[in-house]
Design a protein that fits this description.
Elements: E1 15-21, H1 25-36, E2 41-44, E3 60-61, H2 73-89, E4 94-104, H3 111-125, H4 134-143, E5 150-160, H5 163-176, E6 180-182, E7 185-193, E8 196-204, E9 210-220, H6 226-232, E10 245-253, E11 262-266, E12 272-278, E13 281-285, E14 289-290, H7 302-315, E15 328-334, E16 352-355, E17 364-368, H8 375-385, H9 408-419, H10 423-433, H11 437-444, H12 448-451, H13 462-471, H14 477-484, H15 495-509, H16 513-530, H17 538-545
Protein name: Putative Glycerol-3-phosphate dehydrogenase
Family: Belongs to the FAD-dependent glycerol-3-phosphate dehydrogenase family.
Domain FAD dependent oxidoreductase: 17-345
C-alpha cells in the first residue's frame, strides 16, 4: 500500500499577527500560546522541530537544585511549579526520577550546606522524596570507588526521556489552535523598515523557493542562532545577546552495577555531572565549554569525552568501563545570556526577553536562555509582552510519586486488540503517543505492513512513522526516526537497522528506489553528524582516561 503525504502550500504574501522563528521547545511553546489566544501565528524552523538544543540536553525536567547556590529562589519556585504541571499533564512523557546526590570527602560543598539546600528544595517542592531502597544503596556503594568516603542524599526530580515527543504534542496543539507551521523553512532575514520589524523573508528548503510574509510581531526563539538572526537582519544589538556554552554527553550501555536511580555528583574538578538511566542506556553529562562557533556544527571535543569518561570510570572503577563502550557522544550549545564576567555555571538559566525597539526594530523580541522545564512559562511571558492577557495556570497540589496507573494494563490490552499488535507494541505506543495511541492502532489494522516493527529490535511499528508524516510534520527520515518516533536513539540501532527501516517505511510511503536511497543516505549523514562515534580516537581516549 502507499500513503500520500500532502504538499505544503506557499506562504508568500500572507500576513500573520505573530511569526515565531525557531522550532525548539521554546519556539513551539510560544507559537502554541499565541495561537490559543486567537492570534494568526506562523512558526518556522530552518531544519526540523526539536532538532537543535532541545534534542541535545540531559533530558531532565528539574526544579533547579543547583540554582539555590546562586540565590535564584524565584527561578527554583518557577521551575518546581512547571515541573509539577508537566508531571500531571504529560505523565506518559514526563515521569518522576529518583536522584542520589553523591559527595565524597574532597567535595567543595559542606554536608551541612547540602542538607540545608535539600531541605529548602523539598520545602519549595512541597514534598519529601522517596527513599532509595537499602538494597539499591548497598549495590551502588559496592560499585563505588572504595578509596573515598561517600555521603549520599536523596531527592526527586523528573525526566523527559524524549523531549522531541513533547515538542511534537505541543506542535499538534498549536496547529489545532490555528497556527501554521513549517519545518525545513529558513528565516533568511527579518524585514526591518522605518523603525520596526514588518515581515520575514523565508526560504523553503524543500521547494527551494523564497517567500515573504508580513508580521505584526516577530519572536526570535532560535536559541544559539539568535545573534545570527539579528546580524542577517541588520538589527544592531551593540554587543552579543548570547554567551554560548557547549554541553557534551556520552552514552554508555547499561554496565554491570549501573545504578537504577540517577546520580548527581562532582567530577574531579568539582563541576557537577549527572549519570542518568536513559532509554535502556546510561547518559553521562555534561560539560561547560564556551562556544561561539556555528551551533549546527557543535560536536564534543576529545577533551570533553575524556573528561566524562574519566569521571564515570573514577566513580565506578569496578565496572571496567572503557572508551570502547561509548555508544556515541553528542553536544549542543546552551544559549545563555551574555555574561563575560561570570563562569558558565554562574550564568542564570532564567530566560531573558530582549525587546529590539531601542535598536530601531520595534515589534521584534528575542528570547534568550531558558530550559526544558520552563518553556511553557516563557511562552506565557512572551504572550503578555505583546498584550495578550494570559492567566497563570491554576496552581496544582503538589503530589507524591504516583503508583502505576491500575487502568494502564486494560488500556494497553484494548489498544493491542484494536490494532492487532502485540502488548509490547501497544505499550510503546501509549508511552510515546499518549491519547493518540488508539488512533495509531486503528491505522495499523489497515495492513500487515503498518503493523510491522520499524526494525527487528523494536516493538515500535511502521504505523507510528506514517502518523509522523501524516500529522506530525515529518518531512525526512531523520525527522521521523530521530524525533517523532525516536527509535534511532535506542541501544540496538545500527546501519542495518537504518536499511531495514527505510525499506519498511518506503513500502507504505510509496518511495521508489531512488527516493529510498536518497532518504537513507541523508538519514545516515544526519544521524552520524549528531551522534558521534569517537572510535577513531579510542587509543588516545584510553591512554588519557587511564
Amino acid at each position: 500500500m502507499s500513503i500520500a503525504v500532502k504538499p505544503r502550500p506557499s506562504l508568500d504574501g500572507q500576513h500573520f499577527h505573530v511569526v515565531v522563528i525557531g522550532g525548539g521547545i521554546n519556539g513551539v511553546a510560544v507559537a502554541r500560546e499565541c495561537a490559543r489566544a486567537g492570534k494568526r501565528t506562523l512558526l518556522v524552523e530552518q531544519t526540523d522541530f526539536a532538532s537543535g538544543v532541545t534534542s541535545r540536553s540531559t533530558r531532565i525536567i528539574h526544579g533547579g537544585l543547583r540554582y539555590l547556590e546562586h540565590g535564584e529562589l524565584a527561578l527554583v519556585r518557577e521551575s518546581l511549579r512547571e515541573r509539577e504541571r508537566l508531571l500531571r499533564e504529560r505523565s506518559h512523557l514526563v515521569q518522576p526520577i529518583h536522584f542520589l546526590l553523591m559527595l565524597n570527602e574532597s567535595t567543595q560543598r559542606s554536608a551541612m550546606k547540602v542538607r540545608a539546600g535539600l531541605w529548602l528544595y523539598h520545602r519549595l517542592g512541597g514534598k519529601k522524596p522517596a527513599e532509595t531502597s537499602e538494597m539499591e544503596l548497598k549495590r551502588i556503594e559496592r560499585m563505588l570507588d572504595a578509596g573515598h568516603r561517600w555521603s549520599l542524599f536523596n531527592y526527586e526530580d523528573a525526566q523527559c526521556e524524549f523531549p522531541e515527543r513533547l515538542v511534537a504534542e505541543w506542535l499538534a496543539e498549536a496547529v489545532q489552535a490555528g497556527a501554521v507551521v513549517r519545518n525545513h523553512c529558513e528565516a533568511l532575514a527579518v524585514d526591518v523598515a522605518h523603525g520596526r520589524a514588518r515581515g520575514v523573508l523565508l526560504r523553503d528548503r524543500i521547494s527551494g523557493k523564497d517567500q515573504r510574509v508580513e508580521a505584526g510581531w516577530i519572536f526570535n526563539c532560535t536559541g544559539p542562532w539568535a545573534d545570527r538572526v539579528c546580524q542577517r537582519s541588520s538589527v544592531r544589538t551593540g554587543k552579543p545577546m548570547l554567551g554560548g556554552v557547549r554541553g557534551s554527553h556520552i552514552v554508555l550501555p547499561r554496565f554491570s552495577g549501573a545504578p537504577n536511580v540517577a546520580l548527581y555528583t562532582e567530577a574531579a574538578d568539582g563541576r557537577p555531572i549527572f549519570v542518568v538511566p536513559w532509554n535502556e542506556q546510561v547518559m553521562v553529562g555534561t560539560t561547560e565549554v564556551p562556544d561561539t562557533g556555528d551551533p549546527a556544527k557543535a560536536a564534543p571535543s576529545l577533551e570533553e569525552i575524556e573528561y566524562l569518561l574519566l569521571s564515570v570510570k573514577q566513580l565506578f572503577p569496578k565496572a571496567r568501563i572503557s572508551a570502547h563502550d561509548i555508544r556515541y557522544a553528542f553536544a549542543g550549545v546552551r544559549p545563555l545570556p551574555n555574561s563575560p564576567d561570570k563562569e558558565p555555571s554562574e550564568v542564570t538559566r532564567r530566560a531573558v526577553l530582549h525587546d529590539h525597539a531601542e535598536e530601531d526594530a520595534a515589534k521584534m523580541i528575542s528570547a534568550i536562555g531558558g530550559k526544558l522545564t520552563t518553556a511553557a512559562s516563557l511562552a506565557r511571558a512572551c504572550a503578555r509582552k505583546i498584550g495578550i492577557a494570559v492567566a497563570e495556570p491554576r496552581t496544582v497540589a503538589l503530589r507524591a510519586t504516583p503508583a502505576l496507573d491500575p487502568l494502564m494494563d486494560d488500556e494497553i490490552a484494548e489498544i493491542a486488540q484494536a490494532g492487532s499488535v502485540s502488548q509490547e507494541s501497544a505499550r510503546g505506543m501509549v508511552e510515546w503517543h499518549g491519547r493518540q495511541a488508539m488512533e495509531i492502532a486503528r491505522l495499523a489494522l489497515v495492513s500487515p505492513e503498518l503493523r510491522a516493527p520499524i526494525c527487528p529490535h523494536t516493538p515500535h511499528i511502521v504505523a507510528e512513522v506514517v502518523e509522523a508524516y501524516r500529522k506530525e510534520f515529518a518531512v525526512t527520515m531523520a525527522d521521523a526516526l530521530l524525533r517523532r518516533v525516536p527509535v534511532a536513539l535506542g541501544p540496538c540501532w545500527s546501519a542495518s537497522c537504518s536499511r531495514e527501516a527505510a525499506l519498511r517505511m518506503g513500502a507504505v510511503l510509496g518511495w521508489d528506489e531512488h527516493t529510498l536511497g536518497s532518504n537513507l543516505e541523508a538519514f545516515e549523514m544526519e544521524r552520524t553528524a549528531f551522534l558521534r562515534r569517537p572510535a577513531f580516537n579510542i587509543a588516545a581516549l584510553e591512554a588519557a582516561a587511564d
